[in-house]
Amino acid sequence: MGAEPVTRTQRGRIALLTIDNPPVNSLGAAVRRALDRAVAAALADPGTTAIVIAGKGRMLSGGADIREFGKPPAADAPVLPQVIDRIERADKPVVAAIHGTAAGGALELALGCHYRVAAAENTRVGLPEVTLGIVPGAGGTQRLPRTIGVKPALEMMTSGELIAAKRALALGIVDELVAGDVVEGAVTFAEALAAGGKGPRRTREREDKLAEARANPSLIAEFRQQIKRSARGQESPGAVVDCVEAALTKPFDEALAFERATFQRLVASDQSKALRHAFFAEREAAHVKDLPEDTPAAPINRAAVMGCGTMGAGIAITFANAGIAARVLESSPELLEKGIARIRQTYAGMVDRKRLSQDEMDKRLALVAGTTSMADLADADFVVEAIFEDMALKKDVFARLDAACKPAAILATNTSSLDVNEIAAATRRPDRVIGTHFFSPANVMRLVETVRGKATSRETIATSMALAKKLGKVAALVGVCDSFVGNRMYYAYGRQANFLLEEGALPQQVDKAIQDFGFPMGPFATGDLAGVDVGHRIRQQRAAQRAAQGLPPDTRRYSAIADRIAEKGRYGQKTGQGWYRYEKGGRAPIPDPEIEALIAGISKEKGIERRTVTDPEIIERCLYPLVNEGAKILEEGIAQRASDIDVVWIYGYGFPRWRGGPMFWADQIGVQKVYDAMCRLYERDRDWLEPAPLLARLAKEGGTFASV
Ligand code: NAI
């Protein structure tokens, strides 16, 4: 930070106050103090007729300093609502000059100014507080509805979405867009105000938009109903609605106090702590512990994808979306055509849903080229293999890729379970082999597990992590083990869900309990989406592998329900029936008596007397073993840190973000509690449920996963 985080310069009769607090001009205590003083000085200066508030560098301001949340306020600095209040009450017009991002507290500050001018290019404004489990706490919930109307304000604040300049102008958030230098534009705007004798336009006094909303008394109740489902247990969107309701029913200052109290209550809540954890965990995941920050990442200009099935097509789209040319290799002209058609259909669907313009679709499609000849991959910088999950096939293909591709190229595998070291050993460049485990659908899901083999070089890791970021993904670095972090934990979870069915639960009950916990879907609806046949095939392959290696069959508890369902040809959504049945073309799971009978039959075969399974038991039985497996993964060094496991589960499996991910959740409910329950379960059922040594140690020491 420079000596003075807010500078005051004079432009004729306009005072220009510039926030200078790199990197994002966050509104920490020093900035608030300096801004408050600078405003007071400008107001006291008889030579000043109007004030412009701007930001130096990349943006006006990224908002509050999140690290200050939940800490006692600095005694020697005003809080943001006070700073904004004094600006709004000013008797000279105050203009905000917005460029880059004005998020959260920064937009609240701008809304406290009397007028707003924004750069036409690269401007984004919004109130994303809800994503951190809080509400805007410096008047945003009061001033935004007064500025743009109740409904659009509710939509912006409950989604947390940042919007671009043009839309901000259309909504009325900004008064004018400037094509060139925004500061010059704002100064000119302020000069015109002063010359025209226009005084302050205080947002707190703007009542017309509220009056419109009051004419529709059911508006708030309807909106509350509407967001309930999408919030999935998260508290902050509903709290935003409460604050806006207060704007309609209470005098301004009272409603402002209500907003502040709501903010303070939520900032101290477990949900907000979890969401802040998720925010930092995502950033932390990008850092590789033993990788010096200056490790060079090679530029990736040309990518190649081998295999254009479900995953390959999605990965090729991901490259094209990021503006990287992708050559797609298939094994025959027919399959290639099918694969390219898959890519085209996905884009066409986006155009139909108005997510993409036809023009943009054409541009992106032009980046994808097909081939059936490996020689055409010779100039690729980065190759992702996404062919069938078969070790012999993959080894053969990697040996051939090694021969065909230029020496500097990185060869990545999208395997979801196989040993990356063994695949790398099939090449003469094991240092440039890595796993990039995308999730399905690869163009939508943000997670990539980046799998580091024992020979993978630092440069290869740095390049792959940087590439993931460029692709708009969140990468978590993991080590080699069967099924890596996410799926390995998923098996621990899914297995117990199946056992619960044998003991007395039904798929719809398990799914509902898991959904009520906050997941978008339970394990059985997920199974129907992914394909019941997929897991079935994997289990068959594993059993065959074991036999081929001369190992005795695994005698641990096994549930055959899923296999029986697959054997009936019930593969899930794609066949119209699986764990559930589906109306023609529908995606809503409908409980099926045939499955209930099948499950009851298996209980009987196994001599298990069916009993009532409660929802809390479902959570405990499914999620504690999930945490337990996470503990083993952490202890084995497969994940770098507990928060990376949280990132994997939030972005790859829909673990409720507001619970912070499985490891953070375990810390919050208490490692001891999880350990005690695991001991109890192990005592009764043995087999898969042995408590992880790390879990035992942390329970004994009163430690947390965060501290490992
Ligand atoms: P898929 O069966 O949909 O696609 C595989 C494609 O590879 C097919 O189009 C096939 O023609 C092509 N192919 C096979 N051998 C080839 C060769 N020698 N040369 C060129 N193309 C060849 O399979 P999917 O589901 O896309 O899986 C691909 C990989 O991604 C597997 O390793 C899988 O474990 C992994 N994966 C799959 C996920 C999923 O949800 N489907 C999720 C994450 C990883």
Write the SSE topology.
Layout: E1 6-11, E2 14-19, H1 29-44, E3 50-55, H2 80-89, E4 94-98, E5 101-103, H3 105-112, E6 115-119, E7 124-126, H4 140-148, H5 150-159, E8 163-164, H6 165-171, E9 176-178, H7 182-195, H8 208-214, H9 219-231, H10 236-249, H11 252-267, H12 270-285, E10 302-306, H13 310-321, E11 325-329, H14 333-352, H15 358-365, E12 368-371, E13 382-385, H16 391-404, E14 410-413, H17 420-424, E15 433-438, E16 447-452, H18 458-470, E17 474-479, H19 484-503, H20 507-517, H21 523-530, H22 532-548, H23 561-567, H24 593-605, H25 615-635, H26 642-653, H27 662-669, H28 671-685, H29 693-701
Parallel strand pairs: 2-3, 3-4, 4-6, 5-7, 6-9, 10-11, 10-13, 11-12, 13-14, 14-15, 16-17
Antiparallel strand pairs: 1-2, 7-8, 15-16
Helix pairs in contact: 1-2, 2-3, 3-4, 4-5, 5-10, 9-10, 10-11, 12-26, 13-14, 19-25, 20-25, 22-23, 25-28, 28-29
This protein binds 1,4-dihydronicotinamide adenine dinucleotide (NAI).
Residues 306-312, 329-331, 335, 339, 386-389, 397, 414-416, 437-440, 530 line the site of 1,4-dihydronicotinamide adenine dinucleotide.
Tally of helical runs? 29
Spans of at least 5 consecutive residues whose pLDDT stays below 50 are none
By DSSP, the count of extended strands is 17
Distance between the amino and carboxyl termini? 33 Å
Strand-residue fraction? 5-15%
Give the helix proportion (percent range): 40-55%
Mean pLDDT: 96
Structural class: alpha/beta
Order of strands across the main sheet: 12-11-10-13-14-15-16-17
Bound molecules: 1,4-dihydronicotinamide adenine dinucleotide
Radius of gyration: 28 Å
| Rough outline | globular
Summarize the biggest pleated sheet.
Answer: 8 strands, mixed
